[in-house]
Structure formats: C-alpha cells, structure tokens
Amino acid sequence: MALYGHVLAWARSYLAAIGYYARAYDRKQLQLDNRHIQVVCIDNQEAEYNIGRAFRHTGDDVEDETDLRSGI
C-alpha cells in the first residue's frame, strides 16, 4: 500500500497518495497492536510456569512419592 502511495505521490496525485499512506499506517499499527498482545500473553504464560516450578521445587503441591506409588 505504501508503495502504491509512493507511485501516486510521484505522479502528483497527492490526495490519493495520502489515502494510501493512511491505510498503510493503520495496517502497520494493527500489526504492532497484535504483536503487543502476543508478547503480553507469552509473558503471562511464562510467569505462571515459573510460579508452578517454584511451588514444585518447594514441594507444596506435590504429594508424597510413596502415596503416588500406592495409589492413594
């Protein structure tokens, strides 16, 4: 879209070029917003994973190994 905007600007169709530049800018902003949401989701998943590992390391959420073997 931006490339076609350049072509229009080169041909001195400035109003049409502005429309294409604006659409290209909006599209880029949408991509950046989506990327930000993905990064936030990944960060949340990583935080939950790290908390789970910490609990597992301390043994708080894991039953005694003998209980697991005996089926209790």
Tell me about this structure:
The longest helix has about 45 residues, at about 15-60. It is rod-shaped, with a radius of gyration of 27 Å. The protein has one domain. With about 70 residues, it is mostly helical. Helices cover about 85% and strands about 0% of the residues. It has helices at about 1-10, 15-60, 65-70. The protein is built from 3 helices and no strands.
Outline, from the CA principal axes? rod-shaped
What's the pLDDT, averaged over the residues?
77
**Main β-sheet: number of strands, strand sense, barrel status?**
none
Count every beta strand, where a strand is a DSSP E run of 2 or more residues: 0
Tell me the domain tally.
1
Question: Residue share in helices?
Answer: over 70%
